[in-house]
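Teaching note: in complex prediction, the entire set of molecules is handled at once rather than each chain in isolation. The prompt given to students was simply: 'Predict the structure of this complex.' The entities are:
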Amino acid sequence: MTRPGSGSPTDPIMIQARGLEKHFGETHALRGIDLEVPEGRILAVLGPNGAGKTTAVRILTTLTHADAGEANVAGFDVRHHPAEVRARIGVTGQFAALDELLTGRENLEMIGRLYHLPAADARRRAGELLARFDMEEAANRTVKTYSGGMRRRLDLAGSLVAEPPILFLDEPTTGLDPRGRLGMWQLISELVADGTTLLLTTQYLEEADRLADEIAVMDHGKVIARGTANELKARIGGERLVITVARPEQLQTATGVLSRIAGDPQLDEPARQVSVAVAGGDGILTRAVRDLDAAGVAVDDAGVHRPTLDDVFLVLTGQHPDAEIQAEADAVAREREQVRA
Amino acid sequence: MSAVTAATRPAPTDATAMTWLADTWQMIWRNLLHIRRTPELLLDVTLSPIMFVLLFNFVFGGAISVRGQGGSSGEYINFLMAGIFVQTIAFAGIYTGVLLANDLKSGMIDRFRSLPMAQSSVLTGRTLTDVLRATLAIAIMWIVGMLVGFRPSGGVVGSAAAIGVMLLFGFALSWVGVAMGALVRTPEALQGIIFAAVFPLTFVSSAFVPTQSMPGWLAWFADRQPMTLVTNTVRSFTLQGDPGPTAIPAILWSLGVLAVCFPLGLWLYGRRTTQ
Ligand SMILES: Nc1ncnc2c1ncn2[C@@H]1O[C@H](COP(=O)(O)OP(=O)(O)OP(=O)(O)O)[C@@H](O)[C@H]1O
Ligand SMILES: [Mg+2]
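The expected output is the structure of the full assembly:
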């Protein structure tokens, strides 16, 4: 997602990390991380469980000290000027940082007071956020009684109390159902539309693709790739034409036909698929289907496949992201298509 | 993308004394809301002391000779009350550590640490709330005590002085609790430690029996340890209305414990929460 007006090369860097390292006993959680987020832009830190995403966020938000390296947020060193940093950031951690025994409203008011807003302002701001996050009904119940999705939203609201120019969201949609995730995406898009600098972490490839200007892929405490979604996709090659034939015995014939259109087709027999890299050209799909038809091949499905971030991940790390996560992401994708339609 | 920028909005007010006070008040308010939502948090400063006053008075009262230390009526209850007060205050003080350890398990501490508040207010709010808890405990015990014969003949001034000495001792011990709460991994572990450490100290003191009844070596220790010093001071203030010989050492002990455990607690808490 690229917003108009964002991304001028002279934008100041709001979040910067250089060579961050962190050990937990034997575990080397971070092995030298560099990150940079210019003002008003969104960086998604993408990685599987244990990649070090939370550790990196905790260091940048002054919650943990790095063993080596340095980090600046809003121009202040996180280690030596934590109060300056804290006054300018909002943080929603991976696990809800809420007071279970207080109501939603009391939580937000207390946070406002701890940002040193006058009592009346803290009250007004809490009311605004509860309305905006559609939580007015639950506002006067204790958080203990909230569902996971409500906690997540209140937690996000908590990090927005002081309208911070820089926001950190650690896996903001993990644990949300597809509808909740969509709502969260919508909220995040609105939030950043006004120029907030955002660093978010996610395990969902699609989420990074959809929300971020730039993606940093992390694995085992290192950034293993970075760039825009398109740049990352380009790294694993361009588009492929994928044909699914109706009858397995026709796979060879189909391969022959495709090899005349573009070079070096690849076979996936169990899936009854044959694919070939295409260098673009809109007519190619039509031509392939016409030629296959002429050769008497019954085609079940035909399409041009753009590489997903899953493919990127597979190429970069040599392993598929968690299959379960994948299934969930797919469900969200389908849901989104339905909503759009 | 070169120049690293500073602030896009005005810098926060520095953690001045005023913000520290305001933040501490927010923390006290939060603790009071917790108590309102889970009143069972008050059992240790309400029900337990009532039980102790009644049990000790009626079970041991007839058997223990207080050798002329029973105030105007010479009754055991007059001797006992100072001991019950100090025992309850001591437990409530150190119990601060359990409440803090519970808080450390919750995600809320991370939220506090990401806010531009005075971080120490989490601890001062905690310990000052526990002074309020202790005050409640004293009030309840005082009333129950009077119902079963406690007669503080030291007068209003003596009683007020006694309460002041107790609360100072409780406040000091709650910083011991803070230090321990920041050290232990689980609140349950601390509960065990408190039991093992504080019970023997209250029994080997002048809280429930005159130390003269103990074997010489034990009496030697009992007479010098802070629990006895504070108990004797409270007893002297409530029954005679004068500080007695132990007041200055008792107060020095409390201040000494504070001088060590206040900075130690802050340091341990800071270390624990930045791991
Ligand atoms: N407090 C801690 N003590 C010990 N080890 C830790 C601690 N925090 C993190 N680790 C370890 O550091 C590594 C990175 O953890 P981190 O939580 O940063 O990963 P993550 O990318 O956020 O993973 P997830 O997607 O599961 O949240 C893991 O191996 C983890 O076990
Ligand atoms: Mg994490």
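Point out the following to students. The first strand of chain A starts at residue 13 and ends at 24. Chain A touches chain B through 46 residues (CB under 8 Å).
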